[in-house]
Amino acid sequence: MTLSATLKKRLKYFDLELSFTCPTGRMMVMIGPSGGGKTTIIRMLAGLAKPDDGRIIFGDEVWFDAGRCIHIPPQKRRLGYVFQDYTLFPNLNLYDNAAFAAVDKKEVDVLFELFKIDHLKKRRPHMVSGGERQRCAICQALARHPRLLLLDEPFSALDVITRRGLREELKNLKGKLSCPVIYVTHDINEALFLADEILPVVDGKNDDGWLQRTITREPGSQAVSRGAREPRLSLVY
Amino acid sequence: MTLSATLKKRLKYFDLELSFTCPTGRMMVMIGPSGGGKTTIIRMLAGLAKPDDGRIIFGDEVWFDAGRCIHIPPQKRRLGYVFQDYTLFPNLNLYDNAAFAAVDKKEVDVLFELFKIDHLKKRRPHMVSGGERQRCAICQALARHPRLLLLDEPFSALDVITRRGLREELKNLKGKLSCPVIYVTHDINEALFLADEILPVVDGKNDDGWLQRTITREPGSQAVSRGAREPRLSLVY
Amino acid sequence: MDYLALYVTIKLALVTTAVLMVIAAPIAYILAYKHFPGKSFVEALIYLPMALPPTVIGFYLIILMGPRGWAGGIWESLTGGSLLFTFLGITIASIIYSIPFAVQPMKAAFQKIDRRLLDAAYILGLSKRAAFLRVIIPNSVSGIAASAVLVFLHSIGAFGVLLMVGGSIPGQTKVASIAIYEAVEMMDYSAAGFLALGFIPISYAFLLLVNRLNEDSRT
Amino acid sequence: MDYLALYVTIKLALVTTAVLMVIAAPIAYILAYKHFPGKSFVEALIYLPMALPPTVIGFYLIILMGPRGWAGGIWESLTGGSLLFTFLGITIASIIYSIPFAVQPMKAAFQKIDRRLLDAAYILGLSKRAAFLRVIIPNSVSGIAASAVLVFLHSIGAFGVLLMVGGSIPGQTKVASIAIYEAVEMMDYSAAGFLALGFIPISYAFLLLVNRLNEDSRT
Amino acid sequence: EKISVAVAANFISAFKEIAADFEEKTGVKVEATFSSTGNLYNQIKNGAPYDLFLSADLERPDILLKEGWTEGSFVYARGKVILWSADKKFCRAVTWHEALKTGKIKKIAIANPLTAPYGAAAKEALIKSKLWDNLQDKMVIAQSIAQSFQYASTASVDAGFCALSASVNPEGLKGCFYALPEAPDVVQAACVAKNAKNKQGAELFAGYLLSEHALKIKQKYGYR
Ligand SMILES: Nc1ncnc2c1ncn2[C@@H]1O[C@H](COP(=O)(O)OP(=O)(O)OP(=O)(O)O)[C@@H](O)[C@H]1O
Ligand SMILES: Nc1ncnc2c1ncn2[C@@H]1O[C@H](COP(=O)(O)OP(=O)(O)OP(=O)(O)O)[C@@H](O)[C@H]1O
Ligand SMILES: [Mg+2]
Ligand SMILES: [Mg+2]
Questions:
Q1: How far is the CA of B131 from the centre of ligand 1 (A)?
Q2: Would you say the ipTM is above 0.90?
Q3: Lesser CB count within 10 Å: N end or C end of chain B?
Q4: For chain C, what is the domain count?
Q5: Distances (CA, A) of B230 to A150, D47, D110
Q6: For residue range A56-77, what is the model confidence (pLDDT) as tens digits?
Q7: Residue B134 alpha carbon to ligand 2 centre in Å
Q8: pTM to 2 decimals?
């Protein structure tokens, strides 16, 4: 199964316009400045927002086609989506949240162990820390055996070590999942570590130079003037 | 004004127990594993949660004293607090959110410009991206001229460049604010860049070795076995 | 004290509440989420039983449920019995009379549901129906509790409508409010007062129950 | 058609709704957030006007507002006039009669407020009062709208209570529901029907207004 | 075996006692519905299965006769309207006219003359005494004769036109009253349904209503 999308959407301050493909078992990492349209893209892939124009094709299914007025609702796309603000159902405890749409409830236990929250099964979301909530949201998405996995900054609330551990787990999982994975992050190390492909999104467009400019502090990029004052740390973490 | 706190609280899986001081104009950065108690500490400083035992003293005011049954409510502590999940009032637009408790509304415009969200003034929180919401929450906290600033992962939803820029702004602001700042982050670079002092919190205790172990991958730390497989990137970003 | 009348009252209120919770939920859902032309008008019609004086509702219900009205006619041709002056008859009247109180607070609660929860439910593959049952309903407990309280107490106090369609058959349609009316008409004010006092423990007990359920759902 | 009666009805319903929104908000707040011994009991008492048959409420209101009752007595010693059989009198009756419908949906809405919003408000230095006015109220609009709809329509349809304390004085206390009742008793069914039809546009207009306000607050 | 009877609300007290006696004597169970005459008439018109209707006026049974619901009506009670007050000082005047004319009287309750037969009777007495127009702005309209008594007994009004039956119950004894010689009797008629389910029982009860024994009970409650 390959996901391929051509998306156009008029936003208030810029027009989103880009296309990409992502085959099964591969992970595409989206990265780019805040407000650049990453979440909007993910929402369109999920079917929660409609592009103004373009097409989304998954394998041999057409999920969206502006020309032919096709729009498959999110229910029928069978995806896993970890929201940026890691929405969980406040009325359910963590276990029930993860088991909510699980294909096999027994897997939930395995996932909870993997993500180190098995001691929190019976807690309600407001009774755990931000990072714990986020990990539960990932378990929820994985437990339903998605055909496409969308992760919008899934590790943003995690500390370095936990993050690194989970990042590895995710990389291992990716092979077993056999579905395309789209991953949004702010962490360039993470992007480089995880990505089979990197899609830098700047003001709604694919801007291949952005990553390079950011990393190498190319003259003219914002990074230079500001970064110069910064101590040069070379932590390999 | 100096903040000094001795806190004890029984949590389900460990006991929180630590003490620290933080004088005006200084920034203390809390860092540590997810679920380690950082947010809980901040909530106690804010007055939203009560320690089981201990004292919180700000300058010559006693904010909390378990022995003398003193508990000053959050209203009277006059603080700025950026929540981890950047709570904004959903019924107000970004500008009104930031001006909600501003000492001088004119400053809000300045802050919005500084944080690069002045074009979004009239939007409601659910109409902007995660990072934009987070920046607005920081403006809201700063606009009220707090006596103590508590920032719980304020930049977690921001891309690298924006983050680096704001980090600098914050460092500059710190001098002008003349109040103690407590900052929670997962980003060690950020911690090293911003901190006048670093407080690693592991399982509710101050664990000075944690930072060292994480950075240098001391044998025995989780970081080693996992990190070894990781490509050694030395990005100075 | 007319215990039989109190018993009929409680039975009527419980049945009304149970039935209305089931009927009102989908109506409230449609009013909260769907858009269609004339929606406000439909909504106004649903709320009409509240705006109309009970005697007017009773007046039209008699016409409807009488043997010459279509509801009464159908019922009679099916069962051979009359719909008026039966427990079923006053239950129907009481349900119609209380519909608005069931619908309005539920609608308000459904409207307050965080849209992101619904997004999450759809992503997880839930149909609209399943999302309604598994996400909207459990997260609207306090609104549903409000509905239940209003409907239950309102049916307990129902009088005008039941006077019109009920007759006053002991054990069947003679509810406490009618017994009070009769006592007042007989100028037996102390009997009326006693019976009225009986309402306090009933509403107190019901409130305790609903508050308990409401709180359970939030811890 | 008895336009004067319709006019009195609308006036009464508007005044009742306006006054009750102000009175009910703090009561609902206390019920939603405070804990004190006997709270459920107090709550049951507040809801009692709904559970009691309107004629019973009317009967006790007569006693209370009559010249020998304490409310009526105080009023008479202050103004020299009677409280019963005046517009003020039926307004008070209508307010008491509708209190539960104002309080219950507001309470449910207040309970649903995200606690984090209140935390944020306190951090920003708001007193409980200010947080109530600036955070709880604006974020409970749909619940408050539910209250307003219920109260307005319920006052429009009020009959039993007003029948007791009103005295059917044209232009003062003769509301449309009473006019309808009189028409039915006089067997003038078409006049009753016409007057009843008058309720549809009124409730429709009010609903449109509330829905408009409600929607404005959410965009 | 049972009969179902629709009874005008003003007759409740007497009716309950008569019905209890009747049940004891005949073993026929009496199921009664009490409401205003207008309401009961409306129920009957829409097919309510009453065997017997005890109206508060002559008019409704007449109409039912014309509509073919019944084959004939009979008078079962005659009521009297009185002027009652909770304040015993009210009755110090010689006639009820004078009592009403004193300046202290601010409010008088009357049952709606358009709908309640007792109200109509009171109105007739007032017109005959040339008091009707003068008292207009003191009038409070009650919807039934029982309500008029409620107003009077709670002192919400200074005096009220009530049924004689009110004066004989415990609450009524606490006050005082004038008879109104000018007022006509309120004639209450009853009729048996043509298609009554238990026509025999209904006719039996109709007969019992007019018996000596029932008459005593009616008198006890202020009817003739
Ligand atoms: N619901 C919405 N309606 C209208 N505009 C929106 C909405 N949500 C976001 N926007 C705007 O669309 C643009 C793209 O937002 P988006 O959330 O996709 O950014 P993002 O790349 O995910 O940013 P971040 O890294 O901060 O989460 C921004 O300018 C934002 O203000
Ligand atoms: N409201 C609560 N009630 C009870 N326990 C809680 C509550 N919130 C968090 N906890 C638990 O307390 C511990 C500390 O949580 P806290 O939120 O302080 O962690 P944190 O260091 O902020 O983590 P993160 O980096 O993931 O945000 C965790 O074990 C968590 O499950
Ligand atoms: Mg985003
Ligand atoms: Mg935290």
A1: 9
A2: no
A3: N
A4: 1
A5: 23, 66, 50
A6: 999 999 999 999 999 999 999 9
A7: 20
A8: 0.82
